[in-house]
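Blinded run. Sample ID left blank on purpose so nobody reads anything into the name before looking at the predicted structure. Input follows.
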Amino acid sequence: MIERYSITADIGDMVEAFQVQKLIHCYTNRFNVAPTQTVSIVMHDKLGTRVMHDARWGLFPFWAKDSINADYSGLTGKRFFDRMLRKQRCVVPCSGFFGWQKPDSEKEPRAMHIVVPHQRLFGIAGIYDEWRNYSGKLVRAFTMITAPSSGAMSQWQPQVPIILDEDGLEDWLNPTITEFRSLRKHLEPLESYRMRAYPVTNAVGDEAYESPDCIREIRLPDFA
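Blinded prediction complete.
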């Protein structure tokens, strides 16, 4: 499960990378995003304009299995997912995500920051829901789509988010595409050899900890 990620690109880079036409809310310089926190997603409004808006990470109910991560294999056949897959797809701007590995040199699992080399910013496929709360305010929440990892990374990081390439991003955000079968080809997980994982401080396990240290590579002790 992906329970932490980072987004450190500049606002201008985010607007350019995702061809955002209207900027409503934009959160950047986030080093340790955790579930239930509010972040930025890219979506289309009711007029078909591509906007960057705010959303809570985690569908309701929060304790549900698919709240923060929705596995690709379980997307179809669920009525609430079918609706979001047709009309409420989004892209989650991301610079890296976190996992946990058990190095031989340490007793406890070590936090690892996983990035795509030479790609400071990428988009994760997501779906969102929105509703009016008791005071009439429009509330929005999303989940990111994941799939099983491959290669050596799969031994310690079972799932990875679906990172969209340029064509996938355009199709995923295209409001005229309403058939999910037309989008399946874009939901292949990135091969592990195309990503890089490096150790960072275990303080990322604390959702209240927000510092550049969260994504700074550290050197592990070598007892060999």
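Unblinding after everyone has recorded impressions. The first strand starts at residue 5 and ends at 7.
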